[in-house]
Amino acid sequence: MTPPPLLRRHLLIALGAAGIGSPALGCEFFSSHLRIWHPWTRASRVDADTAKLCMRFDEVQRTDRLIGIKTPVAGGARLVGAAADAGAQGLSLLIRAGQELQLTEDGLHIELLDLQQPLQVGRSYPLHLHFEFAEPVKVALNVDYAGLR
Fold first, then answer.
1. What ranges do the domains of the chain cover?
2. What number of other Cβ atoms are within 10 A of residue 46's Cβ?
3. Does CATH place domain 5-146 in 2.60.40.10?
4. What is the mean pLDDT of residues 49-57?
């Protein structure tokens, strides 16, 4: 019998802190009340100054808001897509309890601004996600494949 998501998360955290149990999948990252699944982008051209950041938020136990992103590969980030507030300053992405939120290339996504270097296929880069309520989460930004742009 599988434990409920919140109990599962607490068990994984406790086992990880104790140094036993299986590690989380390489594409799976946890805050105290949600899971971040597979942050990725495409490889960028040498002269590119932006990149689309995609990922999924699920197992959301408490409504929260993504309010910032820090990474050495970009100078900033903004929300882009249908649900983005065109007049909003900075990053503010509402993540509702009990719902899954998917950021995709063709829909709602985060745009990394002022790229500091080309993003190369097969590489991963550090990415820190900052939330309104949850603690910051360190994730790996994976560069999955090249675009046709």
1. 5-146
2. 7
3. no
4. 97
